[in-house]
Amino acid sequence: MKPPYRQYLIAIFSLVILLGCGNYESEETTIRFQEAEPRPDIDFQVIVDTYPSNMSRRVNINLPERISEDQLAKLAKYLSSTERQDQNHNRTYILYYVQGESRGTAWATTHFDPDLEVKILGATSQQFDDLTQDAPGVDIDGEVLGQWVANSGVSYRMLLHRAEDSTNYITSIFADGSSGTQEVETSQHARGTKLQSERGRSFDEYFILNSQGRLEFWDESENYYTAEAMD
User: Fold this and answer.
1) pTM, to two decimals
2) With CB atoms counted within 10 Å of each terminal CB, which end of the chain scores lower, N or C?
3) Distance of alpha carbon 162 from its chain centroid, rounded?
4) Dihedral, CA atoms, 76, 78, 83, 89, nearest 10 degrees?
5) CB 104 within 8 Å of CB 153
6) 3-state SS class at 208
7) Mind listing the domains of the chain with CATH numbers?
């Protein structure tokens, strides 16, 4: 039979081990997490959340629709506060993309470098609404054959129209109110009607108006973007 004092020492030693394990778990929790800002009432999806260097964090966000600058700022502060405390970067770069639009260029950014700077690179919500109104806002020569809204990095409205002399043109109207017109040659293509401008020819680029009424953007190797027809 063991002496009583040995049982007493074993009990004390076991208690010290248990208390030490409890303190360790608490410390780990403190290191790994920090309290976040209140989550704003904004729908979003995190696509990318990486730490490419010791000094920075990069986050890519998918939005179902355009939001205001104030909403972007609130969302940015929330996202910045969700960083793991053991990372603690003072530079966070956040890029926003609108669902269904081209991923080639971000629609907006909110960068902490280290202070917050909000930039909308594409069309604002109001500008986008203006682009899709019935009236194009510029004088169009001849009959309008089709209209599309393109969001391949920059948002703009495209109109295919035919002048009285049967020459076909595409006029592009941008969110800032500026516009440009280029003549296009039409020809038959396996996917629909090919529209070729002189400028596009020099870059091996062209459009195809497909059988569904969508406008496909092509280069020499692929269909890299498709614009939906306006109702």
Assistant:
1) 0.70
2) N
3) 35
4) 40
5) yes
6) strand
7) 45-121 (no CATH), 127-229 (2.40.128)
186: which 2 tokens?
Answer: 């039409």
Residue 83 has what pLDDT? 75
Secondary element (H or E) of residue 126: helix 125-131
**122, 152 contact by CB (below 8 A):** no
- What are the tokens at 133? 């109104």
Query: In this structure, how many other beta carbons lie within 10 angstroms of the beta carbon of residue 182?
Result: 13
Tokens of 113: 């470098």
**CA dist., res. 121 & res. 212, Å (int):** 30
Report the alpha-carbon distance of residue 19 to residue 16 in Å, rounded.
Answer: 5
Tell me, what amino acid is at 30? T
Write out pLDDT tens, residues 183-206: 999 999 999 999 999 999 999 999
The closest alpha carbon to 229, from 214, 216, 219, belongs to: 214
**What's residue 107's pLDDT?**
93
What pairs with residue 93 in β-bridges? 58, 111
